[in-house]
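Help needed: design a sequence for this.
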């Protein structure tokens, strides 16, 4: 009977030593810290992508508003300073163009009319305009050329 209560050498070596457990926990902890850093980077990237998407949508909505105005409207005649627009800052840049030497003269006044304008909308993250998030442009033509 006494033999049945004794452990064999095989049973004594069946477990892990304290050093093995500590090394396994250390490896697990290091890998979890790496995954945590990866998760943090991923969350920052998603936030940045969301911000850029919102800025691009704002630029496109500004373009759509300007497309509906006449070429002589005040919002289509000159550049604007960087102005707040929700959580972003926007800037409108208008360039008078005359493609391929085309020129229209108003018969009543004899004054040359701008044939088309290139309008660019820039969206910034700050009021200084140092961090450009989105930029889009379009060409607006005079009604006589459309």
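Sure. Designed sequence:
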């Amino acid at each position: 009977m006494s033999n049945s209560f004794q452990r064999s050498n095989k049973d004594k070596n069946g477990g892990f030593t304290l050093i093995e457990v500590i090394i396994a926990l250390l490896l697990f902890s290091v890998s979890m810290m790496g995954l945590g850093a990866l998760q943090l980077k991923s969350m920052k990237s998603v936030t940045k992508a969301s911000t850029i998407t919102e800025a691009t949508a704002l630029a496109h909505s500004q373009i759509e508003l300007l497309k509906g105005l006449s070429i002589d409207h005040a919002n289509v005649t000159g550049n604007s300073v960087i102005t707040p627009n929700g959580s972003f800052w926007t800037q409108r840049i208008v360039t008078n163009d005359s493609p391929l030497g085309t020129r229209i003269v108003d018969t009543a006044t004899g004054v040359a009319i701008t044939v088309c304008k290139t309008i660019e909308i820039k969206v910034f993250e700050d009021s200084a305009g140092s961090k450009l998030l989105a930029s889009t442009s379009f060409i607006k033509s005079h009604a006589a050329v459309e």
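The mean pLDDT is 82.
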